[in-house]
Amino acid sequence: MSQTSCSQESAVARAVRTGEWNETLEVHLRECAICRGVQEAARWMQALAPAAQRSAQSQNDLPDPQILWLRAQLSERQAAAERAQKVLRWVEVACVMAACAGLSIWLAWNWNGIGGEIADRLGWALFDAWPAFWANLYAYGPVNSPILFSSALAVISFVAIGVAYPLLARE
Question: Is 155 inside a domain boundary?
Answer without folding.
Answer: yes
